[in-house]
């Protein structure tokens, strides 16, 4: 069956039709590129302007004088290396906890078929309907006085790591992917004497690299861009991540220095998107259809 398009193959074959098609296509691509890239350009070049130039009206598209001192001042005055390292530690720990525990839970619900498994899954998915803001106070009270052991996780990376584990979306994404894995491969492993953990380690995880990559990206981005929860957990400014530090330290900082700090803080996430963009796009459809 032929694919239906807005223009017929006969119209595209004509010189006039081909010229109109490529003109419209190129114009749309350029407009979308400008819409997405211009804010980035404005932020990068804004840090290179002088304080007077960035505040003038109308604004200048291209800096009159290029100054790199905004980036060096931001690196030193706002203690960016320290806060970036705090962010890396918090994001890496949340990623590791989430990957291990969500994978184990999804594997159990998908392949081990526990009692009341569907009821448990339904309860987990029901949490997706609860606004995140409604959970802030209960989470804070729990972290401030951890049940049973009665210890505080405030100003501790565990206060970020442990709540990040309870991610219903990533767990469901993993479960749906595990449901699609061929059953006969695991049955062959069971006949050869492999246990449940052996099957998970040697068969399920190697076959699940695409979805594990997607979950890893989602976990890292969620922690890196979060602001409210780290602000509540870390009252010690020396332990705050970059998202909180930029706000806390921006009171007496020049606007150009603050913009430069924002540019530096966004570089890791932009780089990760450029490297793993195929996996991010694959995450939209991972687990949605059987293949």
| Element string (H = helix, E = strand) | HHHHHHHHHHHHHHH
Give the termini separation. 21 Å
Any idea what the radius of gyration is?
25 Å
Helix content: over 70%
Instruction: Count every helix, treating DSSP H or I runs of 4 or more residues as helices.
Output: 15
In terms of structural class, how would the helical and strand content be classed? Answer: mainly alpha
Mean pLDDT, nearest integer? 85
Low-confidence sequence ranges: 287-291
**Amount of beta strand:** under 5%
Overall body shape: flat
Describe this structure in words.
The protein has helices at about 10-15, 15-45, 50-55, 70-75, 80-110, 115-125, 135-145, 160-165, 170-180, 185-190, 195-205, 210-225, 230-235, 240-250, 255-285. It has about 290 residues and is an all-alpha fold. Helix 5 (about 80-110) packs parallel to helix 8. The two termini are about 20 Å apart. Mean pLDDT is about 85; it is low at about 285-290.
